[in-house]
Write a structure and sequence with these properties.
alpha/beta; 11 helices; 11 strands; 36% helix; globular
Amino acid sequence: MTSPGTHPDAQAAMVNAMTVDVEDYFQVSAFERHVSRASWETTPMRVEANVERILALFDERDVKATFFTLGWVAQRHPAMVRRIVAAGHELASHGWEHIRVNTQQPEDFREDVTRTKALLEDIGGVPVAGYRAASYSIGAGNLWALDVLADAGYAYSSSIAPIRHDLYGMPEAPRFAFAAAGGRLTEIPVTTLTLAGRNINCGGGGWFRLFPYAFSRWALQQINRREGESGLFYFHPWEIDPNQPRPTGVGAKTRFRHYLNLGRMEGRLVKLLGDFRWDRMDRVFAPVISANAELHAQDGGNKVRATADGLQPGEARP
């Protein structure tokens, strides 16, 4: 399915989706062995102050975004959640406490996403339609999770990375939004660009800090102009916080991935906000989400096939 605004005449006005994964620096998957969950309560939190800086950046540039928020964080910072909503941003779920879905059983995952959705809706006072898995941890081995999300009342997910990576990824998955869970859910993968037969992440995270900004800008331009698709960008509050505390005992690879160019991140983000048009996930991808839901309603899910009941490794659809 094609994203909104794909006609060549509209390419100059293409709108991309800006997203923030609301978690603190010590909650990332890479630190699981170094910062125990039991210690989270006594670890100094920096997420609220960083989110305030992000809200100010967005407000200055009239950008609306989607904030995928951990239930654990929302429970401790309800006023922050309300400020996100009051500023006109979309509130979405990042799960309860950043547990990778590929380590969960279906019933545990169901409880996790249901609990988080209910809490965010109670605090924010708005419906929560979107979900993003910790570390893009939905892939070929656990596509059942997309059915669980549909059962829990989510309209869309942004949880698959169609790349080859040592920790996650499903390179054979579609690169752009597709119907999942028999059409009851729309999966919107992180944005990638195909170079030399391989999908390269150009949708944010560590890649945005690794590649020169000129490459990231060029890559997103290719998505908008050549492929006629809306892009999806993501980052974390801790990525604009170079002075964050540093856990001890962290390996060289993890240190490189986590701390690389943190001091340059905010400046690059400001350029990105100015070089492209941005909006919330639910608005940017509203046409494809609505189309999938309508098709499912019309045919009862018999023709809309993907994920656990249709999309198997090696059978990705465009």
